[in-house]
Amino acid sequence: MRTTAPSFVTVGLWLAALSALPTLLPGCVAEHGTIGAVIAQEPDTGRLFLRDVPPGLAAAKAGLKTGDEILLIDGVDVRVMDAKQIHAVLAGDVDAPVKLTVVRGEQVLRVTVKRTEAKKLLPPRGNH
């Protein structure tokens, strides 16, 4: 029996490189704060996962890890939200808190993330 990986719609708020993540929502690099992570939502179930948690940004500072599943954002079930709604509740003023309920393995964690300044990080330039 062959199994395939689930497909995801990326709704990330932090960009590693614009060209590497073509399915990101327009405007996800806000002038405001962000949780500092790339997130992806399963189109069929609405489940939301952290795909990348760069060091030094809000999600990493709060102890979140790649692979964590976000269940609730400020008490609202993410499965009923679309990508625009998720972006709207995660983006906001720098230093403003966002309360997340996440699953890591068998643990349910309640984490408050303090938004950091939105940054567009590009890969390091090579020597030519």
Describe this structure in words.
With 128 residues, the protein is mainly beta. It has one domain (9-117): PDZ domain (Pdz3 Domain). It contains two helices and nine strands; from the N terminus they run ββββαββαβββ. The strands form two sheets. Strands 1, 3, 4, 5, 6, 7 and 8 form a seven-stranded antiparallel sheet that branches. Strands 2-9 form a two-stranded antiparallel ribbon. Strand 3 and strand 4 form a beta hairpin. The longest helix has 8 residues, at 83-90.
CATH homologous superfamily heading: PDZ domain
The tally of beta strands, per DSSP, is 9
Tally the structural domains: 1
CATH class: Mainly Beta
CATH topology: Pdz3 Domain
Task: Estimate the mean pLDDT confidence.
Answer: 78
Largest sheet: 7 strands, antiparallel
Please state the oligomeric state of the protein chains shown.
single chain
* Total count of helical runs of at least 4 residues: 2
Q: Stretches where pLDDT falls below 50 for ≥5 residues?
A: 1-31
Question: CA-to-CA gap between the ends?
Answer: 47 Å
Computed structural class: mainly beta
- Strand fraction equals 25-35%
Give the radius of gyration.
14 Å
Share of helical residues:
under 10%
